[in-house]
Design goal:
Chain lengths: 337, 326
């Protein structure tokens, strides 16, 4: 099977869906880059190069650069979706949602319910997220818990190139508003990605590996770190199951509970801040519904409740790493009541 | 362009329906039958009516928290609207939205909106859809003097120019953003703000249906022909307070009495149309009676309608599809 980067997988998904459906349009800041200059057209293809090549193929009517004006163009995506387009909009860093959250939270997410089921808002809001790029507090957050909290939104956090492509195609074909969050440190990671279009369904966790001793639930970039931890643990004789929910809304509660009950020991790894985050949410689910099967406290591995720091020494300490995940899994696996 | 007799009668019927609807909502609210808050459009009827008369099928509007008039001007049925406001299962939105969220996408009404400044980005999108799909439709954003100070309005004026979108921004300046006057809250001049973006903009007397309609017709025509967006700064007045329950002490009783006597857009329309011999007073009187009967029935049906059943509909209509728990 062909090997592709996370970035190339997303780019391929955009090309294939725009070719398949003329209602799919894409817009955002520097989505082509260079507009109005006398140099190269499509100079950037998006700040992270994910939309490169779309302009040449689909033209400026369907690939639109925007002013730096997130409220206007995110709201325009919502309005366009109501009226029959399937817009894919890019927010360069999810941190910028602060200037346009109303259009997502109070408009797109709510139309269907408050209009009594009459509206469809098939838009995708793509954004980068996550720490690791030395980008400090306003360009590094993992804000998926905020979106997950809002009914009406679907929230996708892919961890690998194959899922990135299948989940983005599903997001574009989906009839509900989807927040699609791409970890900026994953763009250059490589994996097997089929050439043909395919969908990865929402609400179905991926069982990354199976082991009897402890269940580790991890999201996004933390999945790779959990795998690294699992290799260390295996050498010590501790076998871990790793689950990647892939979407936080809908959340595959059934699979999480199934493995929580099988192992009786659960560790949740989350790059989001700890208060009201996915780790807390998943821990609460397990505590409420698998309490009888638990053999150890549910452990959370998260950053501290601080903004993301800049200095490499601080940022590295902020993020959960394989050693911290392994340590939590050891504690859970060896816990005696 | 001179409005025909039929146009004038239709305009009067719409204005009269809005006025009657709002007076019934007011009465229902006073009687304790409206569960939530409502913002009445009475006094501003000529604006929604004059603008929406310039639209055709396929065109869209975004509205505001003060949206009943826009709904009626876009042809929504007053029966389900009244039921919606009373929180009934037969409402336009099945009782899930209430006064601030009445919408009918089939009729191009993209929703009243509980967020001041919520609409301008949405019409940019609706207009982009029309442009991309080649439907020839235009999109109108009704907003108030309050919304002009929201960033979404500034951003959308700019974006609509950058993308040459078929949008008409109708700023209904009723002089008050909640209980704070526009005189206090709006710096500079709304028309000049639009012109700063290179956008055609005019000030319009919102008490004159014909002036509103003429300005809207010109802006809609320009948008439809690919000429891009326009802004109408429409000076109007609301009869009631900000919301039902606002005792409106910031405007004196003497001022309000004078307003109702001398600055009522419907009375002005009657005087204009009958004195010019365009329509007969008896024709307008018979419309009044028909509208009253229509609203009698709307109120009766809304009162009698069942409440939504939580067991059946509390968790429906959140998503088109969802493989997870709600």
């Amino acid at each position: 099977m062909p090997q592709k980067t996370f970035r190339a997988a997303l780019n391929e998904a955009l090309h294939q869906e725009m070719a398949a459906d003329p209602r799919v349009v894409i817009f955002g800041e520097d989505i082509t880059g260079g507009v109005g200059g006398d140099g190269e057209a499509d100079a950037w293809g998006g700040a992270f190069g994910v939309s490169k090549g779309l302009l040449a193929k689909f033209g400026p009517e369907r690939v639109l650069d925007t002013p730096i004006s997130e409220s206007a163009f995110v709201g325009a995506a919502a309005g366009a979706a109501l009226m029959g387009l399937r817009p894919v909009v890019e927010i360069m860093f999810v941190d910028f949602i602060g200037v346009c959250l109303d259009q997502v939270m109070n408009q797109a997410a709510k139309f269907r319910y408050m209009f009594g089921g009459k509206a469809r808002t098939p838009m995708v809001l793509r954004a980068t997220f996550g720490a690791g790029a030395r980008s400090a507090s306003q360009h590094s957050q993992a804000l998926y818990p905020i979106f997950t909290h809002i009914p009406g939104l679907k929230v996708v956090v892919p961890s690998n190139p194959a899922d990135a492509k299948g989940l983005l195609i599903q997001a574009i074909r989906d009839d509900d508003p989807v927040i699609f969050l791409e970890h900026k440190m994953l763009y250059d990671t490589v994996g097997e990605v089929p050439d043909k279009p395919y969908v990865t369904p929402f609400g179905e966790a991926r069982v990354v590996r199976e082991g009897d001793d402890v269940t580790i639930v991890a999201l996004g970039r933390m999945v790779g770190r959990a795998e690294e931890a699992a290799r260390t643990l295996a050498a010590e004789g501790i076998q871990a199951t790793i689950l990647d929910p892939r979407t936080t809304s809908p959340l595959d509660a059934d699979t999480i509970l199934e493995f929580a009950e099988e192992t009786g020991r659960v560790v949740v790894v989350d790059e989001a801040n700890p208060r009201c985050g996915m780790a807390a949410d998943i821990a609460a689910l397990v505590a409420e519904e698998a309490f009888g099967a638990l053999k150890a406290p549910i452990l959370k591995v998260t950053p501290p409740h601080t903004p993301v720091p800049y200095a490499p020494s601080l940022e590295d300490a902020y993020l959960p790493d394989a050693a911290r995940i392994a340590e939590a899994a050891r504690r859970a696996a060896r816990y005696q009541a | 362009m001179q409005l025909s007799r039929d146009d004038l009668l239709a305009a009067y019927r719409t204005m009269r329906t809005i006025r009657e609807f709002e007076s019934r909502v007011h009465a229902e609210a006073q009687a304790g039958r409206v569960p939530g808050s409502t913002h009445l459009y009475a006094g501003q009827e000529a604006v929604a009516t004059g603008v929406c008369m310039a639209l055709r099928e396929g065109d869209t509007i975004a509205s505001t928290h003060r949206g009943h008039g826009h709904c009626i001007a876009m042809g929504l049925d007053v029966g389900p609207m009244m039921a919606e406001i009373l929180g009934k299962a037969t409402g336009t939105c099945k009782g899930k939205g209430g006064s601030m969220h009445i919408a009918d996408l089939e009729k191009g009404m993209l929703g009243a909106n509980g967020i001041v400044g919520g609409g301008p980005p949405l019409v940019c999108g609706a207009a982009l859809a029309a442009k991309t799909l080649g439907t020839g439709a235009v999109s109108v954003c009704f907003s108030g003097d309050g919304a002009v100070n929201q960033g979404t309005t500034a951003e959308s004026l700019n974006l609509s120019m950058v993308w040459t979108l078929p949008v008409i921004f109708v700023v209904e300046d009723n002089g008050w953003g909640e209980a704070t006057s526009a005189e206090f809250a709006v710096a500079g001049d709304i028309v000049e703000r639009a012109r700063g973006y290179g956008m055609p903009a005019v000030r319009v007397d919102g008490l004159s249906l014909t002036e509103v309609h003429e300005a809207a017709r010109e802006a809609v025509g320009r948008a439809r022909e690919g000429g891009g967006p326009s802004l109408l700064h429409v000076k109007t007045e609301r009869f009631f307070g900000h919301f039902n329950g606002d005792v409106d002490t910031y405007r004196s009783e003497a001022w309000k009495a004078e307003q109702r006597a001398n600055r009522d857009c419907i009375l002005r329309f009657r005087a204009m149309a009958t004195e010019a011999g365009l329509v007969a007073a008896e024709d307008l009187d018979s419309i009044d009676r028909e509208v009253a009967a229509l609203l009698d029935e709307a109120v009766r049906a809304a009162r009698a309608a069942p409440e939504p059943d939580p067991a059946r509909v509390l968790t429906t209509d959140v998503y088109v599809s969802y493989e997870g728990r709600l």
